[in-house]
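Chapter review: from sequence to fold.
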Amino acid sequence: MSSSTSDHKTKASIELKVIVVGAGIGGLAAAYALRCAGHNVTIVDKKFGRPQLKSQGVSHSPPNMTKILCKWGMDVLMEGEAQTYNSLVMRKGQLGDLIGIMHFDKDFLHDLCANYMVVRVQKLEDILLSMIREEGVNVLSATVTDMQSSPDDATIMLDDGKSMSADLMICADGYDSKFKSVVTGVEDDEDQLTPPKSHLLFSWTLPMDVIRQDKVLQYNTDPAQWQVWQVWNGPGYIFHLNAPAGEKYLSMTMSADYNREIHPGDEVWENRTLDYWGIDVNAYEPRIKTLLSLTKYVTSRALISRPPLEDLVCENSRIALVGDAAHPMLFGSNHHLGLSFEDAETLRCLFSRIRHPDQISNFLAAFEEIRLPRNAYLVEFDRQFHLNMKVDNGPQRDQLHAVLSQGMAHGDWDHMDEGSFRAVWGEELNTYTYDASEQVDDWFTKWGTMMSKNSEDAKDAPKTPSSIPGLHRVSISQFDHP
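The token string follows.
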């Protein structure tokens, strides 16, 4: 897919002061998007200028995300760092038996409007950081200790006692967001899922030279396998394997149910041994067992599943949640990064149109109305997907494999039983056709006339979302499939 960057730097007629808290991919993408929209953006994170653990993982760039990468010109920058899917191979986790193969030919990808890719997470973050610096985003290394809002602005307190205020605050401080409660009013959401579910997340790489020396793994050295995303689903775990762009390293991610106590520090990404987590490698299919046995350390963390949020914007309409803070889901899931880029593109498309500061509350209400149902739906969709894929051995797992096998029968789009395929994968495929900029355009088609009318006399315009009929705090129960 070729780049289309002619319109993604459309500037607003005014310049807002924006602070983005958090420099993960969600924060970096939001900072870049709002800078492209013409605003004065500062991104604050304690990690700037300090040694950080580098991610070894790869993640998905589904078509809805790939479209944004292309629009921003990142597809060119990602050459050699992103790999277009050729096929998906699914295997049974305990024996390694084949469930099915799906080849992604041109007709299949054409229906999705963009490529489905695998991207190296660290490279994606490095490119975004380079882009925000090139665009003139201010970068500040500091620890945020507090965040507050008023009807007129939002303020953060720093660990050196100083404070910073902005017209608009973007909170992107990750899955374990420290400041999410400032927006939602909920101090601890872990208890909202019954029963709460704990997970382990692993990410690691192995040199292909090491793999070539092992008879169990030699099949993975076939270059034809390098552009294939392989998935094993077993009782209590999902395992992903890929060698993006024919690299010399095999990349693997794994999520597994975790039934032990989570200790302080366990919910931080660090290099740890499998023994630390009490992992029994003998419980896995021989190839997975070998891949785990060949590595000394895995980049890993524990986490507890979190429910979908019911608010993305604070009561004073000055702070918005984006990234993992807005849509907490497991690392490596199909939608994990895509939603963060959708957040950023939605902000860009909205705030490139702003004409007066008094419109901030309305535009943030629009952001919430557009993003909340999408986020809530996919967080729950992803949670149910993992529950199904990790089901214990028994009739339910046998039925799962039978359904997956039927949905992937024949292996290519031309010979596929489309009815069977869409019965299994149709709901997920529908999520890939989402276009963030089109969603904003549709919103303005409906409400743009009212926005223009309000902006003509902005000083007298109400500073609440209700200043536009139909704009209100949405309830996720109002929505089915967004």
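Two observations follow directly from the output. Confidence is low (pLDDT under 50) at residues 1-6, 458-482. The first strand starts at residue 17 and ends at 21.
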